[in-house]
Amino acid sequence: MRRSFEENLSLYAKLVVGEGLALAAGQELLVFAEIDQAPFVRHIVAEGYRAGAKNVEVLWSDPQTVLTRYREGSDEAIATTPSWLHDGITRAHRENAARLAISSSDPGLLSGVDPQRVAISSRARSRSTKATSALVAGDHINWCLVGAASPGWAAKVFPGLPVNEAVAKLWDAIFLTSQVLEPDPVAAWAEHCQTVARRKDWLNSLRLDCLHFKGPGTDLRVGLVRNHVWVGAQSTMKNGITCSPNIPTEEIFTMPHRTRVQGQVSSSKPLSVRGQLVDGIVIEFRDGAVVSAKAAQGNETLQMLLSTDEGAKRLGEVALVPHSSQVAQTGLLFYHSLYDENAASHLALGACYGENLEGYDGLSESERLDAGANDSLIHVDWMIGSAGIDVEGVRADGSTIALMRAGEWM
Question: Is the previous residue joined to 63 through a cis bond, with omega within 30 degrees of 0?
Answer without folding.
Answer: no
